Hints:
This protein is an alpha+beta fold. Helices cover 23% and strands 34% of the residues. It has a single domain, classed as Mannose-Binding Protein A, subunit A (Mannose-Binding Protein A, Chain A), CATH 3.10.100.10. It contains three helices and 13 strands, in the order αββαβαββββββββββ. The strands form four sheets. A five-stranded antiparallel sheet has the order 6-5-4-9-10, with helices on one face. Strands 1-2-11-3 form a four-stranded antiparallel sheet, sandwiched between helices. The chain has a two-stranded antiparallel ribbon with strand order 7-8.
Amino acid sequence: MVGMSMCHAETISENGWTFLRRGSAYKNKVFFYFGNAVPWNDAQGYCGSFGMRLATVSNSDENKFLKSLTTRSSGVWLGGSDLLQEDKWKWDKPTRSITYYDWGYYNGIPQPNDYLFNQDCLTYGLSDPFETQYTWDDQTCSNDYPFLCERIVRVDSENWPIE
């Protein structure tokens, strides 16, 4: 019985390692793109069920890296919102202020615009008329979009995530 338990633990460890290897490593994070479209809260919960959170962005280099992970033209959920206080954008889990921004223009309107007073969750998508440039947009949290999760890890040689 003890042998089976150890075998099971090794299998879980191996599955976790395989899962991490399928992510995209950037410095001390591994990012995972999930193509199934769900509301923002469901995306956050899905990330949380794997010990992750919706992706956060610290600077322009990390922002560019995230944008390289998908060719999706419409929104992709990130971990920011102004749900707690309008126009005070924060990263959720943990709650901390967003200090780097990449807001765009959608249909010539600068973002975030809180259209109809209910756009409180952060996405990025192709925003210009030629669909060549990804920028941030505020969207209604109940909309269904694919999403990016992140997991903080130690990274060896920028390529190998280690738990």
